[in-house]
């Protein structure tokens, strides 16, 4: 369980995080979405006690991170896979972290195996590919076998094989009942991994919702109709209570009626239909729409930030 | 600082008390990177080789030296002539022990594992301090014995039992330790290897002209410069002429050295408590 209460972090005049509140529950993968610079990394650093909040607080399992005696046993984190001394071997890197939390040496061997790095354990990290560094970063997160895991942009720069590996790993960690909190700016990736979503824009909360609800609630769900008598059909559908927008390519974007109802209206009035398709917003589109409005909203009224 | 402690002093102390795990971690960090060995090896090689070259040339030229040169002959100074490189290498060792953690971002993993930053800092300082003290002493005693062995062919050598000799050799080792810790403090303050090394070089050697231009006002600025402190504590006989005015008394030299140590370690400790 991770809790963020009214968190604000200010860097000089810039508010990186603005009165952000949410809770991350165990047993599922929670995606943390937002454009670059939205405040995701700052929030994660604050949860780990690396940044001090300007106001508000963050708790892991009910306590402040900095008060935990052996935190690697409670929270495992990957913030930046590149954050390793290149001259050190993978094993030494893991060992120097393991001993701080009195973790047995056997854990080092275990996480090296788990992440597929046993073969290169004694090699210096400088020669590692980005994918291997990501695996090493994940090995660090798994070191204390913690109930809570946090990953900041774990799939950045990975090849497809690595992406699938991380995706499956996160799902299996959640299936074991752990709390898995993962940030990304790649919506398509989150669509495949996360069960729940926290969306932020410019440091403020935009959405805190289940993945399915998030896509469902988007107004981008409509029906595309293509017909040679578009003006006539548009009038008929509007009379039935639908909202109809003429698409630039001559099609009609219809909301408020199902495909079946539209088909019936067309058939009853002898309108020829070339194409009738239900369009569901991808997570990406839903997200773009959400963050877009929040940005426009801010541009006109900088005093009031974010939609709650 | 632990909030629950009623005595603030005890809280501060406890927040800087590293456990065995943190100390072991810093020991692993120091010995698992090549730069540690390289800087120590460089320091040893240059210091020993230069000391041996200087003393062996003293010994072979002794017969042809002028009386004035013979009067100024300093058997200890010549065996320590290479220590100037040792200072640089030890200082760099101190800088890198902490600056590389910031440069690579490793410090965030370290603080995630040990959120009590004072303990990380104290453990690092302790490990770097003990290592530099032990290696520094090995280096100065090694240089001393090798250099004096070169001079012994002409019976010019001094012995540890001679007046002031043991104190000077110990002081040279102590100076290497203090320079390492100043480097360590600078590394923590600046969090940047190149910047901290530049600042260290400026403090050790480039500050000399600053002292000189202030000499007409007071000799005190010159006397508290590391360069002149090092001169003071590694001399067996008093300097003469104008340069002597810039050299502090032993009391001032040792207390300034202690002050350098405390100030830089404290500034580093303050800086490490800021956002990483």
Describe this structure in words.
Chain B: It comes from Actinoallomurus vinaceus. Chain B: This is ABC transporter permease. Chain B: The chain crosses the membrane at residues 37-56, 80-100, 121-145, 165-186, 193-211, 252-270. Chain A has 308 residues and is of the alpha/beta class. Chain A has helices at residues 40-47, 90-98, 105-114, 130-142, 160-175, 187-193, 211-216, 230-239, 259-268, 283-300, and strands at 2-11, 14-24, 29-33, 55-60, 75-78, 148-152, 179-184, 196-201, 204-210, 222-226, 243-246, 252-255, 275-279. A six-stranded mixed β-sheet of chain A has the order 5-6-7-3-8-9, with helices on both faces. In chain A, strand 1 (2-11) and strand 2 form a beta hairpin. By secondary structure, chain B is mainly α. Chain B has one domain (18-272). Chains A and B meet through helix 2 of A and helix 2, helix 6 and helix 7 of B.
Question: Which helices and strands occur, and which strands form pairs?
Answer:
The complex is a heterodimer of chains A (308) and B (276).
Chain A (H helix, E strand, L loop, with lengths): L1 E10 L2 E11 L4 E5 L6 H8 L7 E6 L14 E4 L11 H9 L6 H10 L15 H13 L5 E5 L7 H16 L3 E6 L2 H7 L2 E6 L2 E7 H6 L5 E5 L3 H10 L3 E4 L5 E4 L3 H10 L6 E5 L3 H18 L8
Parallel strand pairs in A: 3-7, 3-8, 5-6, 6-7
Antiparallel strand pairs in A: 1-2, 1-4, 8-9, 10-12, 10-13, 11-12
Chain B lengths: L7 H8 L4 H12 L2 H28 L5 H6 L2 H5 L3 H22 L1 H8 L3 H35 L13 H26 L2 H14 L1 H7 L5 H4 L2 H8 L9 H4 L3 H23 L4
Helix pairs in contact in B: 2-8, 3-6, 3-8, 6-8, 6-9, 6-10, 8-9, 8-15, 9-10, 9-15, 13-15
Helicity range of the residues of chain A?
Answer: 25-40%
User: Treating each run of at least 4 consecutive H or I residues as one helix, how many helices of chain A?
Assistant: 10
**Low-pLDDT runs of chain B:** 1-8
Order of helices and strands of chain A: EEEHEEHHHEHEHEEHEHEEHEH
Rg of chain B, rounded, reads 21 Å
What's the structural domain tally of chain B? 1
CATH class of the largest domain in chain A: Alpha Beta
* Largest sheet features of chain A: 6 strands, mixed
